Each structure stands twice: as C-alpha cells, then as structure tokens.
C-alpha cells in the first residue's frame, strides 16, 4: 500500500529523534488495535496491555522480563503520548544541537531503565508502597532524562513558553523535578518516582561527559556489535567506521578522515537549513571531524 510505503520511507529518511517518535506512535496504535481485538473476544484491555507494561511485583516481572524496555515505548491515553512526544521533540532537537543522534537514542533507553530501577526499588523496598499492585508505562522517564541532560549541559539556553516568555532550561528542569518530588504522595506515585530516576540518569550523563566519560558508550558499543552481526548477513550494509560497525540507521559509511569538501558541504547545509536538517550520517561525519581536530 502507498500509505505504508510512505510511512516506511519517512521512517528510514527521518532523524533518530523522529524514529523514536514513530516507534512510540506505532506501539500506541498497536496497543489500541490489540485492545479492540480484546473487546471482540471479551478480554479486558488491561490484561492484554500488561504484557508490555512494567509490573511492580517482582514475581510478575520474572514472567515478563522484556517489560523494562517495552514500557518506555508504551502509552494508552492519547494525551499521555501527545505530551510526551511533544516534550521529546522540542527538547530532543535542542539535545541534538550538542550531542549525536546515537547518544540521544542511548540516553532515551538509559533514562527509561533508570526510571524502571527507581520504580521497582521504591515499590518493593518502601513500606508505604508495600502490596501495591501497580504497573508503569510511558516514555516520561526517558524524556525527562533528555530534558535534564541538556539543561545540565546548557543551563542558560533560552526557550520560549506560552504565557511565560523566555526561560532558561535550568529552570525548566528544576520546576519539572520539583513537581515530581511534590507529587510522590499523589495518585501516580510510581510514575513520579520513575521520572526522578530518569532525571538522575540525565544529570549523571551530562556531568560525567563534562569529565570525559560517556555513559552511553557501552550501550552504543553493544548496538554497534549487533549491527555488525546484521551487516554480515546483508552485504553492503554496516561498513566499518573507525573500527566500529554501523547498521542501516545511517545513510552510508562515515569516512575515517572526512574530506574538506564533505565538511564544507555539511556546514553550508547548516547555514541554509539549520543543524536539525542534517541526516544522521552527516551529523556523524561532522562529529567525527570535530573530534579528530
């Protein structure tokens, strides 16, 4: 179908940020289609959705060990996914002004895992939450990790907010964390605790990077290794890049020594259309060149 082909083409040509948004939307649609089937066969939607939600109960988690990953891409309420994706898109674009797309995707996953860790620890160790039969889903912890990371890295970066005007990113992060801290005793306590876990990961990422340590590197190295395995089965894909292999997420191999013509062409494109217009391949070339210089 033409529509499906257009969606596939848009996904392949999109930035890493847009691919994450597309994945969240695709899971949202799939979850609702499954829930619709549940209505037809008289199975409650919750009993189906819980297979991709993160359970607080460790016994149930043992039966669904994939949920620490799937929960961060899963939404059920329309407003939930709408606000998370808008928040991710706006702050993700700022993140990409300072960091590479691969770091964005890795931090998204690490932020989600940090949120999952905080959630599970709180629900199983704090007496106040003992016996709570709850589940966690949504990209909020991952998104907040990105928000806090860029706020710690560029605290005085100004953004415009409706009815408020320009405000520094540091205040956006401070207010966001403050709201979560004050809301821990509210109805969605587990969700707010997970947000704090994501915020902690974002702060650790930016702080560690200032001291020369990239906490996303091990995850990206693992993904590179997986991509290299796939590329061996698909000739012409995933050529070595400075000792590392990259998969289909790139438009082509990044030269170990990009030519001046390549760099000039990328810089000209930035002047014409802005940094966000670059493909993942062009950003990696620019990042590689700047690092070597």
What are the defining features of this structure?
Rhomboid-like fold, two-stranded antiparallel sheet, single chain, 293 residues, globular, 2 domains, mainly alpha
Question: Your description of this structure?
Answer:
- The chain has 293 residues and is mainly alpha-helical.
- The protein folds into two domains: 2-210, Rhomboid-like (Rhomboid-like fold, Up-down Bundle), CATH 1.20.1540.10; 254-293, no CATH class.
- It contains 13 helices and six strands.
- The chain has helices at 2-13, 16-40, 45-49, 58-63, 67-70, 78-95, 101-125, 140-153, 169-182, 189-210, 217-233, 260-273, 280-292, and strands spanning 54-55, 135-136, 158-161, 165-168, 240-241, 244-245.
- The chain has a two-stranded antiparallel ribbon. A two-stranded antiparallel sheet has the order 3-4. Strands 5-6 form a two-stranded antiparallel ribbon.
- The longest helix has 25 residues, at 16-40.
- The chain is globular, with a radius of gyration of 20 Å.
- Residues 236-255 have low confidence and may be disordered.
Described by the principal axes of the CA atoms, the overall outline is globular
Low-confidence stretches: 236-255
What is the CATH homologous superfamily assignment of the largest domain?
Answer: Rhomboid-like
Total helices: the number is: 13
Query: Which CATH first-tier class of the largest domain would you pick?
Result: Mainly Alpha
- The figure for the number of domains is 2
Radius of gyration: 20 Å
Largest sheet: 2 strands, antiparallel
Strand content: 5-15%
First-residue to last-residue Cα separation:
47 Å
Major beta sheet, strand line-up:
1-2
| Order of helix and strand elements from N to C terminus | HHHEHHHHEHEEHHHEEHH
CATH topology of the largest domain: Rhomboid-like fold
**CATH arch. level architecture of the largest domain:** Up-down Bundle
**Helix- and strand-based class?**
mainly alpha
Residue share in helix: 55-70%
Tally the beta strands.
6
Q: Mean of the pLDDT scores?
A: 83
């Amino acid at each position: 179908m033409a529509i499906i082909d257009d969606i596939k083409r848009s996904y392949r040509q999109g930035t890493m940020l847009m691919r994450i948004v597309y994945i969240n939307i695709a899971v949202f649609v799939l979850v609702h289609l499954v829930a619709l089937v549940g209505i037809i066969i008289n199975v409650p939607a919750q009993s189906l959705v819980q297979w991709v939600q993160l359970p607080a109960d460790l016994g149930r988690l043992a039966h669904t060990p994939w949920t620490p990953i799937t929960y961060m891409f899963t939404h059920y309420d329309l407003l939930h996914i709408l606000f998370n994706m808008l928040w991710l898109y706006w702050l993700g674009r700022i993140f990409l002004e300072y960091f590479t797309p691969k770091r964005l995707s890795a931090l998204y996953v690490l932020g989600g895992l940090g949120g999952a860790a905080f959630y599970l620890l709180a629900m199983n160790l704090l007496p106040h939450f003992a016996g709570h039969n709850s589940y966690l889903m949504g990209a909020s912890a991952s998104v907040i990790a990105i928000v806090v990371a860029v706020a710690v890295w560029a605290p005085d970066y100004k953004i415009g907010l409706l009815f408020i005007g320009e405000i520094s990113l540091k205040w956006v992060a401070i207010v966001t964390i403050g709201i979560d801290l004050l809301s821990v005793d509210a109805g969605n306590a587990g969700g707010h605790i997970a947000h704090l876990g994501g915020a902690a990961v974002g702060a650790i990422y930016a702080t560690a990077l200032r001291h020369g340590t990239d906490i996303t590197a091990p995850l990206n190295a693992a993904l590179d290794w997986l991509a290299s395995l796939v590329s061996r089965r698909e000739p012409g894909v995933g050529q070595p890049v400075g000792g590392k292999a990259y998969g289909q997420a790139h438009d082509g191999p990044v030269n170990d020594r990009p030519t001046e013509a390549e760099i000039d062409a990328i810089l000209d494109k930035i002047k014409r259309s802005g940094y966000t217009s670059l493909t993942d391949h062009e950003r990696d070339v620019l990042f590689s060149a700047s690092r070597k210089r």
